[in-house]
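Weekly modeling sync, notes
Attendees: AB, CL, MP (scribe)

Item 1: holo prediction request
CL wants a bound-state model with magnesium ion before deciding which constructs to order. AB pointed out that an apo prediction alone won't tell us much about the pocket. Agreed to run with the ligand included and paste results into these notes for async review.

Input as submitted:
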Amino acid sequence: MNPTIISLGLAGLTAAAVTTAAPAPSPRVTNSAGVVGYKSTPGLPGTPWHVHDPDRPQPVVVTPGTFSSQETTGQPPSDAIVLFDGKDVAKWQSAKGEPTNWKVEAGAMFPGKGDIVTKQEFGDLQLHLEFCTPPPNGKSGQGRGNSGVFFMGRFELQVLDCYENKTYPAGQTGSLYGQQPPLVNACRAPGQWQTYDVAFTAPRFDADGKLLQPAYITAFHNGVLVQNHVAYGGPSSHKVLGNYDKPIPPAGPLRLQDHGDPVRFRNIWVRPIPPAGK
Ligand code: MG
């Protein structure tokens, strides 16, 4: 049939029939807090809220921090839990729960002997941390500026000096050690301050201890994306595959590794992440 005729035919329908087929108008509403939105819109799945719902809780106001430079240390956002502000290691202890022997000098902390863990435990987490690897020591590969950040005490984001230093890719700076190389090598030269910014999601288990969802990490190294929502295959380990055969408690400490190299740290803060969609 000629499309023109169809078009003319529709135009010939009564105006009422066309109007009835259109969606009902959604009137704007203003709630008691003066927020304008809509309450007659569809419901958002999994939430009690409508599309554009004015009654959904307002996000908490946070004053952003500032970024560090090589010479100056930045300020955390206003709601951050500061784990190291350049002054002392009061928020940390040895992995056995004893006082740590890590040292503080010129606003930075460094080993001591043995790994250190935070006294506080965390699940889902935003982390900011800065590290500085020592001058080359004549070694190569894993022997240069080795340390690591372990989420929940178990899931490592590798710290290493990979500036003009090759090693196995799943052991590079920004790797999930033994599991996943970084997307790129964004290392600065040893002696320069570098940053990690991470969103970590804890693994989930059901009541029987069966894995529902692995741990995930998104990580930026010096502002460059190196891990994009990557799943950990299990807790990090050396020369063996990690797994989730045993359930993991919902929270654990942040751990920094002493791998025998004087890697320095500064400006460490976290923000626990609440579940999404509430
Ligand atoms: Mg390491």
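Recorded for review: The radius of gyration is 26 Å.
Action items: CL to compare against the apo run; MP to circulate these notes.
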